[in-house]
Each structure stands twice: as C-alpha cells, then as structure tokens.
Amino acid sequence: MRSPLIALAPADAPSWLADAITAGGGTLVEPARADGLVWFGPFAPEALRPVLAASPARWVQLPWAGVEPYLSMLTPDRQWTCGKGVYAEATAEHALALTLALFRELPRRVKAGRWEPRSGRSLFDARVTIVGGGGIGEVLLRLLAPFRCEVTVVRRRPAPMPGAAAVVGTDGLHAALATADVVILSLPLTPETTGVIGRDELLLMRDEAILVNVARGAHVVTDDLVAVLRDGGIAGAALDVTDPEPLPDGHPLWTEPRCLITPHTANTPEMVMPSIVERIRENVRRFGAGEPLIGTVDLELGY
C-alpha cells in the first residue's frame, strides 16, 4: 500500500498539522499533486476555492465542525470531512460553565462591589432542553448526569440517547421549550435552523428559564432576544456566539444585565489541538487504507 499524497494548506498552516499527516502515514505534497487535502484556513474560507481548482484531491478535511462557509464548494466529486466531534468536549464544558454562572448570578456578582442579599439557583434536578443531538449534546448528557437533570433532546432524527429522559423531533421543539429551566443550543446551522429561536420561542419559555447558545449566533434572532430580555420574558441568556459576530461595541446586549457573553471561546486551538491532531492522523491513515473516514459531511443536509 503506497503512502497517500496529502497536501496541507494554506501555506501558513501550523507545523503540528504536517506532523499529524506524516504520523498517519501520509506523504506531504503540493495541492496540485495531492490525493487528499487538509485545509486549515478557518478564518479565510474563500481562500480554499483556488486551492481546490488547482488540486485533484479526492478527499478534503475541513477545520471546523460547522461547514456553512464552504457550502458552495462542497461538490460530490470529492469526499468531505469536517471537525464533527473534535470540539464537543470543550464546547459542552463551556455550556455547563455558562449555565452554572447564570444560575448562580455570577455576571451580577462579579460587578456588585458590595455585599448583596443572597439569591441563586441550583442545577440539581433542573429540567434541561438540549436542541441538537450531535457530539456536543452527547457530552452534555454525560456532564449533566451528576446533577440529576431531566434532559429532553430535540434533534432532526429522534432516537434514544443515553442520559436523555426524552428525545423528540423538531416538531416537539415548542413543547420542550415550554417546560425547560435551561435551553442549550448545540445544533448545526442550516437554512432550517437559522432563526430557530425567535420571539415566539422565547415567549414560550418560562420566566425563570435561561438560554445558552454555544452553536451559531444565527440560531437566535438577536433583536427578539434583546426585547425579551429587556422585558423580563426570560431570566437570562449566555451566548458564546452572536449574530452579528463579533458583537459590535455599543450593542445593547453588552449592557443587558441578564446577558453573559463570551467571545466564541467555548473552544480554542490550545484546548482542542490534541483532538485535531488525532482526527487528522486517523483520517489520513483511514484514507490510505481505504477505510471509512470520520466526520463525513452529508452534502444533502449540509453538515
């Protein structure tokens, strides 16, 4: 079996990715000679287009779990894989941290400057709705288990998930929102899921409920969230992603006391580098051996 010819692009991609390719048995070559291409230009997706035009690569590894910046490039003549699952543990951990921060009212506490009356809530025995049943949802179910949470998962294809009290289809979203203490968004961004949480959905949630978004900013209609938070329609929101992103200086969410924002830091390269290295190493090995790849993109579904 010959070593698969793998290109790494763009030219300034980290050297540890090259090491992962060779560890998987690949031989590094220029894109024009490549059987496979590892693309790690996550903040310049359009730069991939000319590389693809010059490369016969039959397989392309994309950097993120979300592939929406690349949708117009995903042609059926190539096999496409992405970072599905690579970022799940770090992102689920961040979702849990945001949830606990809001329940314990930490955004207000850290700015108080004085001793305030006692208040706060416990996550134990809370009702949690997770919208999205992929890798992040799977890890969240494990993280929430010690808290004895009653978890409902909303996903496109309902199927039992370990740790979930119920798994429902998208037609069960509204019912799952209405009973939750916490709603966590961890689903892919597609045309169907853009704006999935708007005014109607937010008003279905209980006054004491919180919204946590670690998926994509466009899942939430931002103006509707601003209005509902302002009017006290829900207890709070914690956002690692926003629409627009970055959230502009002076945006009302920055000064909304019920909102906690982190700047898309649920995962960082430092956190997930070992997992990225292992994913690329294993996919290069599988590609060379003719085995099924991990994290394949469904071109019809767009994720």
What order do the helices and strands come in, and which of them pair?
Layout: E1 5-9, H1 15-23, E2 27-28, E3 36-39, H2 48-53, E4 59-61, E5 79-81, H3 88-103, H4 106-109, E6 127-131, H5 135-144, E7 150-154, E8 166-168, H6 173-178, E9 182-185, H7 199-204, E10 210-213, H8 222-230, E11 236-239, H9 252-255, E12 259-261, H10 269-289
Parallel strand pairs: 1-2, 1-3, 3-4, 4-5, 6-7, 6-9, 7-8, 9-10, 10-11, 11-12
Helix pairs in contact: 1-10, 3-5
What global shape is seen?
A: elongated
Q: Profile the largest sheet.
A: 7 strands, parallel
Rounded to an integer in angstroms, the radius of gyration calculated over CA atoms is 21 Å
End-to-end separation = 31 Å
Number of strand elements: 12
Compact summary:
With 303 residues, the chain is α/β, with parallel strands linked by helices.
Report on this structure:
The chain is built from ten helices and twelve strands. It is of the alpha/beta class and 303 residues long. The strands form two sheets. The protein has a seven-stranded parallel beta sheet with strand order 8-7-6-9-10-11-12. A five-stranded parallel beta sheet has the order 2-1-3-4-5, covered by helices on one side. α9 links the parallel β11 (236-239) and β12. The longest helix is centred in the C-terminal third of the chain and has 21 residues, at 269-289. The chain is elongated.
